[in-house]
Amino acid sequence: MESEKKASMVSDMGAWAMNVISSVGIIMANKQLMSSSGYAFSFATTLTGFHFAVTALVGLVSNATGLSASKYVPFWELLWFSIVANMSITGMNFSLMLNSVGFYQISKLSMIPVVCVMEWILHNKHYSKQVKVAVIVVVIGVGVCTVTDVKVNAKGFICACVAVFSTSLQQITIGSFQKKYSIGSFELLSKTAPIQALSLLVFGPFVDYYLNGKLLTNYKMSSGAIFFILLSCTLAVFCNVSQYLCIGRFSAVSFQVLGHMKTVCVLTLGWLLFDSELTFKNILGMILAVVGMIIYSWAVEVDKQSTKTLPHAKNSLTEEEIRLLKEGVENTPVKDVELGVSKG
């Protein structure tokens, strides 16, 4: 039992480490690919389509070689999920374009309380006081790290709301699908990736043209840009797989809370690799965020332990209880249901 628990813990840590490393890696690769000082490939939605196309190809090869098994999930549910996921991607891109960086960061922070409320509404899930305190500390810490100027406009606000709602719903749905259909994370991703890839590759160039006024066909591709596109796609496979793995193992709220560790890593690496400014405010926010994550981990563990120690209802009757019930049935006069009189 103890060895199984340790193996599960190692597996959880592995999934989380893969998600953090691949997510931070893809941000660094995309920064080089999309920045004006890099290769100026400013087609974020289309690039995401490439990501899902490569992920779908990996899933197809895995199923064909027998490395993974394909389980049945109704097509309409996969289609609905893909629409929600694509709304999340497009909404985030539009939110970043139309809003200030400060408001964009606030909208991302708001996903934690939104996920909590949605899980409460959809799954009747409740959170302890300790977990709520930890979430608040994490939100404040990451907010201090990242939020600068905050400017709001009507279009940007609507896009941010769509992005937050669809991303939260997507993360909750991943977990519920895995439980509902007893499907592994990679198998679920293999089924949704082709739909997302097709739709993003068809509509992505038009979305990108609206965002930046540039046509993909006019972009001059270089060997360096191709290398970073392939690197980004490779990291995206690990990032997508690990995201599904993490949400299957943890809750959507845990994924959001621990996900802010990536923000801390990105800020630190940006300072180390790209000469980004790291102020006292950033450092203070990072410390707060890390403290909040430690409190959150402790609070979740306390909840698990308290759940285990709760008294459980009996699942079976003892022989003595069965004998007494039999005697009760045999000695009780049978009544006529309609007349309510004893027949014994």
UniProtKB/TrEMBL annotation:
It is a multi-pass membrane protein. It is found in: Membrane. It comes from the Eukaryota. The chain crosses the membrane at residues 12-29, 41-61, 73-96, 102-121, 189-211, 223-241, 253-274, 280-299. The keyword Transmembrane helix applies. The keyword Acyltransferase does not apply. Keywords: Membrane, Transmembrane, Transmembrane helix. Residues 23-297 form the Sugar phosphate transporter domain. Its main location: membrane. InterPro entries: EmrE-like (IPR037185), Sugar_P_trans_dom (IPR004853), TPT_transporter (IPR050186). This is Sugar phosphate transporter domain-containing protein.
